Amino acid sequence: MDTRAWIGRFAAVIDERGAELTELDRLAGDGDYGTNLRSALGRVRANLSAENPSTPGAVFTAVSNAFLNTGGTSGPLFGMWFREFAKGLGDEVTTRSLATAATEAEGTVRRLGGAEVGHKTMVDAMVPAARALSDAAERGAPVETALKEAAAAADTGARSTEALLAKRGRASYVGEHARGVVDPGALTVAWFFAAAVS
Ligand code: ADP
Ligand code: MG
Ligand code: MG
Fold first, then answer.
1. Angle, vertex CA 147, rays to CA 85 and CA 95, nearest 5
2. Closest ligand relative to 77 C-alpha
3. What is the pLDDT of residues 12-33, one digit of tens each?
4. Largest CA distance in the chain
5. What is the Å distance from ligand 2's center to 86 Cα?
6. Helices 3-28 and 33-51, packing angle to 10 deg
């Protein structure tokens, strides 16, 4: 698994479709989400070319640092999420290391943000993706299969946010107004896992 190519594909999707995320945040929040994310990905590219990391752990450390320096609620939460990928993946991407990383990562985001599944946040995609990776690891499935299953689970989780009433984040301030709007953070997580296998 070439994690740098994975991040490159993720950044390309954000370049292409960032405006859709901003529109979702405009409908349910303050409309800065796509801008925050694009600037994070700009720093990701800069960090990767400056550091030229050679291990998955080092790649995800560069990604994490870029997000930790980004504004909005999502910047630090994604920064801490990616930090657990850096720790969990280390020198080698295996189905087991992905499962460990994703499980630690979703736990960290839930702890820091206080959101659980069903609160209409990024957590709604992070938790099912981690569960899919853990199930794949239990079966001894190959990395490609595991990531495909994680992408499908994250996509289902992201779609599920459309019908929800938000309990965390700015979308919770507008109550019923945000029902019918997919959470942009959850959609980003789905795109991240889709980029692994695209
Ligand atoms: P802000 O509301 O500060 O402008 P962003 O636009 O950067 O934040 O990010 C919004 C996204 O952050 C939401 O789509 C949601 O997925 C996520 N989010 C907001 N609050 C929380 C929280 N408490 N826990 C987890 N994720 C959250
Ligand atoms: Mg916002
Ligand atoms: Mg904001």
1. 65
2. 1
3. 999 999 999 999 999 999 999 9
4. 47
5. 26
6. 160
Contact 115 CB / ligand 1 (< 6 Å): yes
* Separation of CA 195 and ligand 1 centre (Å): 21
d(CA 195, CA 159): 17
**Helical spans, DSSP H, in the chain:** 3-28, 33-51, 56-68, 74-89, 95-113, 123-139, 143-160, 184-197
Q: Which CATH architecture has domain 3-196?
A: Alpha Horseshoe (1.25)
Q: Each residue of 34-56: pLDDT tens digit?
A: 999 999 999 999 999 999 999 99
User: Ligand 1, from 22, 36, 69, 73: best to mutate by most atoms within 8 Å of Cβ?
Assistant: 73
What is the token pair recorded at 28?
A: 């349910």
CA–CA gap between residue 34 and residue 43 (Å, rounded): 14
168 lines ligand 1 (CB under 6 A): yes
Going from N- to C-terminal start, the domains of the chain cover 3-196
